[in-house]
Backbone:
């Protein structure tokens, strides 16, 4: 189990993060500059928080009040950096052996061979990092980390340096590695798709502050805040005013919609592009077609709503190419959304 409750200030930026893990793969999800990597560095002991506490499996790694701050070497934290951080002047086997320096020579050699086999690095033992592909470098870095017997894994955007084809292959390999590991994992990403495929729970970071941990399913289907909805991939937002328990006024779209139970602190509503449908009487929004964009396998249609200000009032709907063919050339469309598909959001603006 990993428990993190830390604060750190860097100039105008303030980090205030609190979460716990218990044998799960937890995603730290947020936009660039929100504090994801800084959080990992504080856990690993590379950066020192100003205040707070970090506990790993009942071992206190950091406690500002008790003046505890273990060195990175004593924390038993496996940190996979974005660029893998292999020693450039060492071979693959030497990189792995560096994590096993406390073992006797014979045991160390056997352990290196075991990791070379486990991570499909046989035949690459004498290669240096610059002689390896991106995927091979990642496997070598993971082999070195796992050789050290970490109690928690910190993965900092592990697929950011890979092309799309190799990324998919490495995701599958990473899933197998994490399944075999079975311990706590922190997975930093700004990609909702990676999070959906790799993680069970998620903690959204917004401008340095963490939101409540939740299941990935909950984030994708019923996000509660504006920042969570943005990160879950929602494209359509409007400032909103609560009229009654089940009615909201969408200020930017210029319409009133029926919804599920409206929170008192409502600030915005959101509708996913693929939840909008053409036609329908409930929550109908009469729109003007502004632009049609052909994507690889779908058609994206930008619609001006009755709100008037096109900058804020545009709605985006995504349709199969065959479905859009029936409306191609139309100057106006009426779209609708079911009450349960309208996200009721709290928190700061966009």
Residues:
């Amino acid at each position: 189990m990993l428990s993190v409750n830390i604060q750190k200030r860097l100039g105008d930026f303030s980090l205030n993060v609190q979460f716990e893990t218990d044998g799960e793969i937890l995603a730290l999800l947020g936009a660039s500059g929100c504090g994801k990597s800084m959080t990992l560095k504080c856990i690993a002991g590379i950066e020192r928080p100003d205040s707070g506490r970090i506990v790993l499996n009942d071992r206190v790694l950091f406690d500002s009040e008790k003046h505890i701050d273990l060195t990175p070497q004593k924390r038993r934290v496996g940190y996979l950096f974005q660029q893998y951080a292999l020693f450039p002047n060492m071979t693959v086997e030497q990189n792995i052996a560096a994590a096993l320096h406390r073992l006797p020579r014979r045991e160390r050699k056997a352990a290196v061979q075991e990791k070379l086999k486990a991570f499909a690095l046989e035949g690459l033992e004498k290669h240096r990092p610059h002689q390896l592909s991106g995927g091979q470098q990642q496997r070598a870095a993971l082999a070195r980390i796992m050789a050290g017997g970490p109690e928690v894994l910190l993965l900092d955007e592990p697929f950011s340096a890979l092309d799309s084809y190799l990324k998919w292959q490495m995701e599958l390999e990473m899933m197998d590695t994490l399944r075999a590991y079975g311990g706590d994992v922190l997975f930093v990403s700004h990609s909702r798709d990676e999070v959906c495929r790799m993680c069970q729970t998620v903690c959204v970071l917004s401008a340095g502050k963490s939101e409540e941990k939740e299941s990935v399913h909950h984030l994708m289907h019923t996000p509660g805040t504006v920042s969570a909805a943005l990160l879950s991939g929602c494209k359509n937002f409007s400032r909103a005013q609560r009229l009654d328990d089940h009615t909201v006024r969408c200020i930017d779209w210029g319409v009133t919609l029926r919804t599920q139970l409206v929170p008192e602190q409502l600030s915005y509503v959101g509708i996913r592009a693929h939840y909008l449908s053409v036609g329908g009487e409930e929550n109908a929004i009469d729109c003007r077609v502004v632009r049609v964009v052909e994507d690889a396998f779908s058609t994206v249609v930008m619609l001006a709503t009755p709100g008037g200000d096109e900058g804020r009032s545009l709605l985006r709907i995504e349709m199969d190419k065959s479905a859009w063919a029936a409306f191609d050339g139309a100057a106006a469309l009426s779209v609708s959304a079911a009450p349960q598909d309208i996200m009721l959001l709290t928190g700061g603006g966009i």
